[in-house]
Structures are given as C-alpha cells and as structure tokens.
C-alpha cells in the first residue's frame, strides 16, 4: 500500500476540533443515550450480552474487496473480526438470544470515503436468535429503532432540534420491498434511489443469492433468493442493518461455499461444527452504531459520528 503524507490526519487539529466547540460533547450525549437505550431494550427482550471477539481463525468472508487484516500467531493465522457471524451462531447454543457491541475492522478501499457511510473500524450491535424466522428479528429491530428515537427525542430535545430538527419517530410496520422488484424498477442503483426518496426507514428483502455470503439462508421455495433483509435509512443515509436467517446444515453450507468460491480450508471450523450437527437454525442481524448516530444527528459524513473515526484512505488516532 502506498504511503502518502496527505493521508495522515493532523492529531493536534483533530483534538482541537474535539474541544473547541460543543459538537463533540453533544455527540457523546446522543451516542451514549443510543447505547443505553439499545442495551436496556435488548435486555428487556430477554437477550444476554456476550463479550466481543477481536481475533479468530474465522471471520466474515464479506462480499466485497478489502485489504487483508490478519496476524500470525505461532504459525497460525488470526483474522481481525469483520463480523462475529460464527461466534453468534455458536453462542445461541448456550442461550437463545444474544447480542454484542462488536468492534469490526474492515480495511475498506479509499474510494469508499465518498459514500460517507463507511469507516474502517466501526461498532455494530450484532444479535442472533435461536430458532427464529427473519420476521421475528425484523419485528425486534423495528421496535428497537422506534424505542431509541423516541427516548432520544424526549431526553435530548434541544440537541436534536439543533442538529436534526426534522427527525421523525418511525411507525410500525416498516415498508418491505423485494430487491428483485426494486432492480426492475430502478436498475442497479435501486438502494441509493429508494433511500434518497424515502421519508421513513424501509426493508429490502429477498436479496439475490450471489449478492450475499454463504451463511445467509437460501429460500428453499425460491432458490435464487435469500431469506434475508437490509434496513435502509431514508433521506439518502443508506443501509442501516443487514441480517437474515442462517444456513446451518453441512451439505447446504458446502453447496453455498462452492457457489461463492469460499476456501473450505479457511472455514474448516465452521464446517466441522455443521458436520457434527452442532449448528442450529438461527436468525439475526447487525446494526452499525456510527451509522445510526449519523442518521439521528443528520450528519453529512460518518466520520463525525464518533471520536477517533478511521475513514477509508486516512490514518488517524
Ligand atoms: P454487514 O452485515 O456487513 O451489512 O454489517 C452490518 C452493519 O454494520 C451494516 O448494516 C452497517 O450498519 C454497519 N457497517 C458495515 N460496514 C460498515 C462500515 N465500513 N462502516 C460503518 N458501518 C458499517
Ligand atoms: Mg450489509
């Protein structure tokens, strides 16, 4: 990777921007409140919080190109977590409903800076439910979002009025759009167009099988599509949540890995568990904390949505 001086964010200027006006203290008030509402809601729904996994031989293969981030340890390779998908599936064997405030590292290419919603280090509230269908997870996430926005607009009215006076509490049930229908109507930029035109969050469901990873469950009644979903924020803020039902059967996982060209060697532990019949049906999803903060505060770029933001193509503390 090339090293350019212009990539380095000046630390003194950055820290001065933190202290020179009240934006960042307001940000922390809102973000802290988001995290508190989220935890309280999840616990009230019977979820237990698991500690995040930072490194593992297994992480999410992802569906797009990023730089590799792995560490050699005694001749074995540890990947820095891109998502805790396998660990979430395993945790639901211990207790039915789990969530984690999970830091993820994804070394995105610098062109991702322009879309204003990618960081290379971010936190997602990653959750998984044993024996659930996707509808159950979608219902939980709709109620979660409504709860967070309701509580914040009541508790921090002045801050919300200052930064995002148009913020509306969404109403159940959120609209659902099949991806195939969206593609037919709007072409490949469907997500961008739909998000820009929307006034409330909405779901994209039934994502085409090649667009996602091997662990997203194939719809047995409609095999070109997955039993999954994305939640999309309105006003052009884009994707908020991705999730769905999961594959757990060995033969099916093998089939899906072959389809995507995943290395069976890298995912050996995943395959061993499914072969033993240890993986069970689950559904779950992840919601990015910085993207939610950006949406609630109406921020132009996600790099204003946390302290110590790491933007694609930049180096920062
Ligand atoms: P994924 O399963 O890859 O869609 O990730 C789950 C959620 O994490 C997404 O819906 C986003 O809210 C958030 N997320 C994913 N990648 C990033 C990123 N590079 N920067 C910030 N948030 C992200
Ligand atoms: Mg996604």
From TrEMBL:
Q: Write down the Pfam families for this protein, in alphabetical order.
A: tRNA-synt_2
Give GO MF terms, alphabetically.
asparagine-tRNA ligase activity; ATP binding
UniProt keyword rRNA processing, yes or no: no
**Which GO terms fall under biological process for this protein?**
asparaginyl-tRNA aminoacylation
Q: Where is each Aminoacyl-transfer RNA synthetases class-II family profile domain found?
A: 97-312
Is Zinc one of the keywords?
no
- InterPro entries the UniProt entry points to: Aa-tRNA-synt_II, aa-tRNA-synth_II, aa-tRNA-synth_II/BPL/LPL
Q: What keywords does the record list, in alphabetical order?
A: Aminoacyl-tRNA synthetase, ATP-binding, Ligase, Nucleotide-binding, Protein biosynthesis
Q: Which PANTHER family match?
A: ASPARAGINYL-TRNA SYNTHETASE-RELATED PROTEIN (N-TRUNCATION), ASPARTYL/LYSYL-TRNA SYNTHETASE
Q: What is this protein called?
A: Asparagine synthetase
Organism annotation: Geotoga petraea
Q: What is the lineage of its organism?
A: Bacteria, Thermotogati, Thermotogota, Thermotogae, Petrotogales
């Amino acid at each position: 990777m090339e090293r350019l001086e212009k990539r380095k964010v000046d630390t003194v200027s950055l820290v001065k921007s933190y202290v020179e006006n009240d934006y960042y203290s307001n940000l922390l008030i809102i973000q802290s409140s988001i995290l508190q509402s989220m935890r309280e809601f999840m616990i009230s729904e019977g979820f237990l919080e698991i500690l995040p996994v930072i490194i593992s031989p297994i992480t999410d293969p992802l569906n797009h190109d990023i730089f590799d981030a792995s560490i050699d340890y005694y001749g074995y390779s540890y990947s820095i977590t891109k998502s805790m998908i396998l660990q979430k599936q395993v945790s639901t064997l211990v207790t039915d409903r789990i969530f984690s405030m999970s830091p993820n590292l994804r070394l995105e290419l610098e062109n991702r800076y322009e879309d204003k919603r990618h960081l290379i280090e971010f936190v997602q509230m990653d959750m998984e439910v044993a024996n659930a269908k996707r509808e159950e997870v979608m219902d939980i996430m709709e109620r979660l979002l409504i709860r967070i926005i309701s509580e914040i607009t009541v508790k921090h009215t002045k801050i919300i009025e200052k930064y995002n006076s148009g913020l509306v509490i969404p109403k159940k049930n959120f609209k659902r759009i099949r991806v195939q229908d969206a593609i037919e109507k709007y072409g490949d930029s469907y997500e961008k167009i739909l998000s820009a035109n929307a006034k409330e969050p909405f779901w994209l469901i039934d994502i085409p099988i090649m667009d996602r990873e091997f662990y997203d469950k194939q719809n047995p009644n409609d095999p070109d599509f997955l039993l999954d979903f994305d939640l999309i924020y309105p006003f052009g803020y884009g994707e908020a949540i991705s999730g769905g039902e999961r594959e757990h059967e060995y033969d099916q996982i093998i089939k899906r890995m072959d389809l995507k060209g995943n290395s069976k060697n890298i995912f050996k532990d995943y395959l061993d568990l499914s072969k033993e019949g240890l993986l069970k049906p689950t559904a779950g999803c992840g919601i990015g904390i910085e993207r939610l903060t950006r949406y609630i505060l109406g921020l132009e770029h996600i790099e204003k949505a946390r302290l110590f933001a790491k933007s694609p193509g930049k180096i920062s503390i």
